[in-house]
Specification:
By secondary structure, this protein is an all-alpha fold. The chain is built from 13 helices and no strands. About 70% of the residues lie in helices and about 0% in strands.
Length: about 350
Amino acid sequence: MQSLFWADRLRNLATVLVITIHVSAPVSHTYTDFNTWHWWAANWWDALGRPSVNLFVMLSGFLLLGKDYPTGSFLKKRFTRVLIPALAWMPAYLLYGHIAHHDPATLLQAMEKMIEGPVHYHLWFIYLILGLYLTYPILRPWVRQAQEKDYWYFFAVCALGTWIYKFLSVFFEVRIGLYFELFTNQLGHFVLGYYLGNKVLAGETPAVQGISPWRLSRPQVRWLAWALIIAGTVVTAAGGYWHSVAKGAFQPYFYDYLTINVTLPAAGWFLLARHAWNERPLLEVEQKFAAASFGIYLAHIFVMDWWAQCGYWHSVAHPAKTLPILIALVSLTTFMVVSFIQALPGGKKIT
C-alpha cells in the first residue's frame, strides 16, 4: 500500500495556514490605509493562508470517498470523532465570549448559538464538515462509477454555483435564478480532493477506474502546482487591494474560500504535496503535529488571545516583523498545549 506521508504533511500545512489567517486578518481586514507596507505585509500573509479550509475539505474527500463504509457505522464514527471534541470546546468558547464580551448574555442565547452556529468565528468549520459527512453515502456510489467527463460536469456545475454566482452577485448585482443549492458550497472541493488524489502521472497505472492519468510528467505537475499557488495568491492579494481601494473600505470577496483565486492555489498545494512530499518518511514531530491538527484548530484561538493579553501581538511592531513570529509562536504553543491535553486521561477524545 502506498504511503500517505504527503497527506499528513498537507494537513500540517493547512493547520498552520488557518493560524496564518487568524493572526494576519485583524490587520488586513481592519487597517484602512491600503497604500502602506503596513497593510501589505498583513495582506500577503492573509492571501497565502486562504487555501487552508479548502485543503482540509479536499483531504477529507480524498481519504473518505475512496473507502466503502456502511452508512450507519460511518456516520456514527465520524460524527463521534467531531461532535465529542466540539461539545467539549464549544461551551468553553461560549463562556469565554460571555466573560469577555457578554455574548452570549443568557443560557438560551448560548443554546441558540450552538444550534445555529457558529459558537465562535472559527468553529463554523464544525458545521461544514458534519454536513459533508452526510453526503458521503450519496457521493461514494457516484464516484465508484463516475468517468472523467462526469467529474468535469460536476466541477463545471460547482463553478457555476460558486465562482460565477459570487462574481455576478458581487460585481454586477445579478443573481442566477437556478435552484442548485447542492453545488453552492464546499461539495466541489470534497470531490476535487478525491479526484486529484487519485489522478496519477502520465505512464502510471490508473489508481481509480474512471479517472484518467495526467498527460504531464512529475516535474511538469510540480511546475503546474507552483504556478497555481503563486498565481492564486497574487490574485487574492492584488484583487483584495483593488476591490478595497475602489470601495473605500475592506472588501472580503477575493478572500472568500469559494472563489477561483482561492480554489486554484488549494489545488496547487494539493498537487505539490501529492507529487513532491512523499519521498521520505514522516519525522516524529510531523506525525504528532498531524495527530494534533484538529485539536490545534479548536484550541489556537485561546492561545492566540493569551499571547495578545501577554502584550505580544501584531501591534507591538511592524507586521512584517511580528506576523511570521506570531504564526510560528501560536502554532508551536498550541501544539504543546494540545499534546499536553492528549497525554491526560480522555484527552485524545476531545482533541
